Amino acid sequence: MTARVCVARIGAAHGLRGEVRLWTFTEDPMSVTQYGPLSTKDGARQLEVTHARAAKDHLVATLTDVTTREEAERLNGVELYVARDKLPDTDEGEFYHADLIGLAAFDAAGAMIGTVAAVHNFGAGDIIEIARAHGPTLMLPFTDAVVPTVDIAGGRVVIEMPGEIDGDEPDSGSPGI
Amino acid sequence: MVRSVWKGPFVEGSLLKKADVARASGRHDVIKIWSRRSTILPQFVGLVFGVYNGQKHVPVSVNEEMVGHKFGEFSPTRTFHGHSGDKKAKRA
User: Fold this and answer.
1) Which residues of B touch A141 (CB under 8 A)?
2) Mind giving me the DSSP string for A130-156?
3) Which CATH number fits domain A4-86: 2.130.10.10, 2.40.30.60, 3.10.310.10, 3.40.50.1100?
């Protein structure tokens, strides 16, 4: 079975004609209409988004074979998946989060650090989060210097741990934020 | 409430010293800071700060567009773990 990626979750029914709220997890919310039929988590049912329009923070979508409100209500909470190989190819140096998550992380000497738990972007560059066997997770900038090797086929990333300029932790008495 | 212009931007003094050390070293060191309230200055562009969010230090790679904002804006204290979907990460 090929790897699948969750791209949307069906929310509440919208109106009387079988429309649903659709919460997307894609970079461009409207791209869920371009992946063709989407499958449910167990793969038992195929649903295609035939029409979608943007609402406040979600889409209002029409799905194939869903024409009544009752049918739409039954789909509430269903997650929609697309096969990983249906996603378009990435540019040089660009990786899908879905490909990175789960890779084993090794240091330059070949010792295992942990596994990639998540990839974030809070507006200041991509961040790779490594879950270690013990202790808190490690957040590192996703740069060529820190992550020189990403081997998706081999299931591993190599991490060059950056140096840290530590400093004076704020005094407990200071009003610092 | 807007800060008075005559006061200038607020930056923790220790942070300026650490930035000087990082620039002088020429390496890609992460500067660990706790001062989320400090303003990002033009001399911080290109440096990587680890901004404390109450639990850990979140890496913040400073670029030109971030000048004038506060460090805390880029280190959320509450993280929502959603599905990755078709989101992509690019190595800088």
Assistant:
1) 30, 48, 59, 61, 92
2) EEESSSS-EEEE-STTT--EEETTTTE
3) 2.40.30.60
Residue of A nearest to B32 (CA): A166
Flag if A95 and B29 touch (Cβ within 8 Å).
Answer: no
Prediction pTM value: 0.82
CB contacts < 8 A (A, B)? 158
Number of domains chain B contains: 1
Fold annotation for A97-159: SH3 type barrels. (2.30.30)
Q: Is B28–A125 a contact, with Cβ atoms under 8 angstroms apart?
A: no
- Per-residue pLDDT tens for A58-88? 999 999 989 999 999 999 999 999 988 888 8
CA torsion angle A66 A68 A74 A79 (round to 10) = 30
Q: Is the separation of the CB atoms in A116 and A138 below 8 Å? A: no
